[in-house]
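Task: sequence design from structure.
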């Protein structure tokens, strides 16, 4: 049973590091702390990848978008975008 860094996990799944971190925060992917570093067990990453393949992106995307896009940071961006569009 091997462990990998968040960057290695992101590269393996061909997603961003931020996506891996979001999956960890959402509880969809377990991370193990080694001091200040987070490591992901390869078997957990394989299970996530298999679930993604079994359900497809379409089935997972609604939940993912709800969790990833509905947050305070995006609300700030949306407000900024509305203000900027009025200036033009």
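Answer:
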């Amino acid at each position: 049973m091997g462990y990998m860094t968040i960057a290695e996990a992101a590269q393996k799944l061909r997603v961003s590091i931020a996506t891996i971190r979001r999956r960890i925060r959402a509880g969809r992917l377990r991370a193990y702390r080694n001091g200040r570093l987070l490591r992901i067990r390869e078997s957990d990453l394989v299970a996530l990848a298999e679930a993604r393949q079994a359900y497809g992106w379409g089935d997972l995307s609604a939940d993912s978008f709800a969790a990833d896009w509905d947050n305070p940071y995006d609300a700030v961006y949306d407000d900024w975008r509305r203000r900027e569009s009025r200036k033009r």
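Strands lie at 3-4, 32-34, 37-41.
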